[in-house]
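sanity check both lines:
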Amino acid sequence: MGGRHLRADSGQSHTSTKDGVLTGKMQPERLVSFEEMAKMILLSAGRTIDSVSGDAANASAQKSWSNKYVNLAEDTNLSLYTKNLIVTSAASRAAAIHTILEALNIPRQSAATSPFKDVDASNPFYQDILTAVQYGIITGDVDAAGKPTGKVRPADPLKRAELATIILRAVKLKCQ
């Protein structure tokens, strides 16, 4: 499918201060905000903020370390990055899948039915979730014994480790 490589400096391995300075701490259990998600996904997709100028249209990103990343997300037409999005809010699992597919230009696949109890055709991210399953980007939840639960929890907030795993799988797919 293409040839992008996961960048070592993509911000996926360490958290940062409110000014965007890396702290050196992974904190894989921490929830991911939309601003962090923009940085992680865009850099993993090979996009940089080098040529970004001016402020993002999104007021919640202005005067923030994430201003240029959100501006880039807007310029790249990542559909969830609207001027009304509160970029400091936690991103959902489905929002992350949707944004990754958009940023990496992974084509949506059609599927007859959802394998998940908690995802039906009324979910706005239905096609994105099923596409991610078909490509092996996500597999759904498992219980303590490793058995599938039949759920993916699309509206639940996403942890850093989960996002890093999903991004890695999507980038590997693009590199095939």
